[in-house]
């Protein structure tokens, strides 16, 4: 099993989208790479924790490769927007790729480079090692399964 943490705006849609992929074995919504320990949703929303809403993805490399996950990620976000996706605005909605395995960095940078060659604006998606990840509250886990009419800026049918 391998893991990667992706931030693509509101974590509800990111989690729901990646749960549908064959080879993704587990997803957890949470807060990544901020400055505080064990933040709450309310604290993250205020914007002073520097955490981003993110999803921890565990995947089986025999079924899906990191390149495929990154292609899917780039397809559901606008990587040229800073601190915003869809109607969600704030630092907690910045996009990011947070890796746990240093060996993944080359693949991530190659993926970004390939995408950048097709865009006229610069990609602002953070690419950093994962420093912190705190699971979000239970009501955020599988939110769109529990609330099928909940807001989501991602087209889940892609």
From TrEMBL:
Keyword vocabulary terms for this entry: Oxidoreductase
Active site (catalytic residues): 10
Gene3D superfamilies membership: Peptide methionine sulphoxide reductase MsrA
Leader peptide range in chain numbering: none
EC number(s) stated in the UniProt entry for this protein: 1.8.4.11
GO CC entries: cytoplasm
Pfam family, one: PMSR
GO terms of biological process kind: cellular response to oxidative stress
Enzyme class: oxidoreductase
Entry-linked InterPro entries: Met_Sox_Rdtase_MsrA_dom, Met_Sox_Rdtase_MsrA_sf, MsrA_MetSO_reductase
Entry's Gene Ontology molecular function annotations: L-methionine:thioredoxin-disulfide S-oxidoreductase activity; peptide-methionine (S)-S-oxide reductase activity
Family annotation (NCBIfam families): msrA
Function: Has an important function as a repair enzyme for proteins that have been inactivated by oxidation. Catalyzes the reversible oxidation-reduction of methionine sulfoxide in proteins to methionine.
Family membership noted in the UniProt record: Belongs to the MsrA Met sulfoxide reductase family.
Xref: PANTHER family: MITOCHONDRIAL PEPTIDE METHIONINE SULFOXIDE REDUCTASE
Protein name, per record: Peptide methionine sulfoxide reductase MsrA
Source species taxonomy: Bacteria, Bacillati, Bacillota, Clostridia, Eubacteriales
Record gene name: msrA
């Amino acid at each position: 099993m391998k893991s990667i943490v992706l931030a693509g705006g509101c974590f509800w849609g990111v989690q729901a989208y990646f749960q549908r992929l064959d080879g993704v074995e587990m997803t957890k919504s949470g807060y990544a790479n901020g400055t505080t320990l064990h933040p709450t949703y309310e604290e993250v929303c205020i914007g002073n924790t520097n955490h981003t809403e993110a999803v921890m993805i565990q995947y089986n490399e025999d079924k899906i490769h990191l390149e495929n996950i990154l292609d899917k990620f780039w397809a559901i976000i606008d990587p040229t927007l800073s601190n915003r996706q869809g109607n969600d605005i704030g630092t907690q909605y910045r996009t990011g790729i947070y890796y746990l395995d240093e060996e993944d960095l080359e693949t991530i940078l190659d993926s970004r480079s390939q995408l950048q060659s097709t865009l006229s604006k610069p990609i602002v998606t953070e690419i950093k090692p994962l420093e912190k990840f705190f699971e979000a509250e239970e009501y955020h886990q599988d939110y769109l399964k529990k609330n099928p009419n909940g807001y989501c800026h991602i087209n889940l049918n892609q």
